[in-house]
Amino acid sequence: EIVLTQSPGTLSLSPGDRATLSCRVSQSVSSYYLAWYQQKPGQAPRLLIYGASRRANGIPDRFSGSGSGTDFTLTISRLEPEDFAVYYCQQSETFGQGTKVEIK
Amino acid sequence: EGQLVESGGGLVKPGGSLRLSCAASGFIFKNAWMTWVRQAPGKGLEWVGRVKSESYGGTIEYTAPVRGRFSISRDDSKNMLNLDMNSLKTEDTAVYYCTTETRFSYGHKVYYGMDVWGQGTTVIVSS
Hints:
The structure holds 2 protein chains of 2 kinds. Chain A is built from no helices and 10 strands. Chain A is mainly beta.
């Protein structure tokens, strides 16, 4: 069974900061199945990145994904007020536990 | 633009049953792989199960905690996805989302992501 471990659990940053979120997979996986989602309170998740590095339709270019094998990263280059949310990585049938990006 | 609307959630006693439905529009439903994802109160996302399109054999898979209790079905003539939940437990309490598991094709490469989500329907299992 594949386990996805996201770190940190919480990231306290200010608007304009750069956010770096990590997703570590318990065994080497294909990047084709690695996706990232954003979820705000009371809302459904929204697909940000698929295939580890491809932005979904309508996602601003301040969001980028990278990585391969067991280590993947979601980077938000400059945080906008609407980016404060919880972020999940996903590999096939497994989600990470999430990283909360909160306002410092 | 694709849209999914879930219905059928509610309060049910442990051991009871419930059927959730998901109405799809704005995309070719029969070609879509459809997935249920749930989220317990204050918790993260949990993949529940998936049904592939008929062109991929209509294969259905479930996560271990629900296998044998939950059943996913689809009606391509009505653009509907269903989740039949039996022998419900308190730990099944969650918001249930239906979502499309889209295959993004670039030449010979195919990438996967859940890009259309419903608003969710709440299931509470309590005595």
